[in-house]
Design a protein that fits this description.
By secondary structure, the chain is an alpha/beta fold. The chain has helices at residues 2-43, 122-125; strands at 70-74, 77-84, 91-92, 106-108, 113-117, 131-133, 138-141, 155-157, 162-166, 179-181, 186-190, 210-212.
């Protein structure tokens, strides 16, 4: 009888422990995502006041899901799925605080006024993204090799910036890539060799006078 009671007590304690663990993990995820959006707002100039609607003086579950440009996994759950801030005139460097949105799958910061380099450890910041759009900004410097570690990427758009140097050949390891564009930059050298399923055309590399290799003309020997 004592063994049965001990077994039941152990079962109850196990359930309680798991419940506390899950709740604490969920609470951390919610707090982390809120901090993510706070960091974005704090790090970017917002001359058109689009982000003024991001009011953090709210304790209602899922309140950040009603922010402009934010999609959540569930409307009543403060876990960010996508950040879509295209064409808002936002100015500043790439917001590293995005790393706190730990379940993010889509990031669109296109058509803004971002400057500086793409972080060299970008895969640690947007670990699980399937779509990354940084096109039509003022980003400069090299495309980081570390982007090849963003293994879930289906879409990578970097066109219309001021990027220089070679495109890392390691990007060819992005097995899931379907859309890739670096047009209208200042890139040189051979282009990555993606999987045939990617169907990357010459338009993806347009107006980079120093690029070569299929689907572009052969590189000089």
């Amino acid at each position: 009888m004592r063994m049965i009671l001990n077994g039941r007590a152990l079962g109850v304690l196990t359930i309680l422990f798991l419940s506390v663990l899950l709740n604490s993990s969920f609470s951390y995820a919610v707090e982390s995502d809120i901090n993510c959006l706070k960091a974005i707002k704090a790090s970017l100039e917002d001359p058109n006041n689009y982000l003024n609607s991001w009011n953090f003086n709210n304790n209602t579950e899922g309140f950040i899901c009603r922010f402009i440009g934010i999609d959540c996994w569930h409307p009543d759950e403060s876990r960010v799925l996508n950040i879509r801030l295209s064409g808002m005139g936002l100015k500043g460097k790439f917001p590293r605080g995005i790393a706190n949105c730990t379940t993010l799958t889509g990031l669109d910061l296109s058509s803004n006024k971002l400057y500086g380099t793409i972080p060299s450890d970008i895969s640690k910041i947007v670990k699980f993204v399937t779509s990354l759009d940084l096109s039509s900004n003022n980003l400069s410097g090299k495309i980081p090799v570390n982007l090849s570690n963003c293994s879930f990427l289906n879409v990578l758009k970097l066109e219309n910036n001021q990027l220089t140097g070679q495109i890392p050949g390691e990007l060819g390891r992005l097995a899931r890539i379907k859309t890739f564009s670096v047009a209208n930059n200042r890139l040189t050298g051979p282009v990555p060799q993606f999987s045939p399923n990617a169907r990357i055309t010459a338009e993806s590399y347009a107006n980079n006078s120093g690029l070569c290799g299929a689907p572009l003309p052969v590189c000089p020997s």
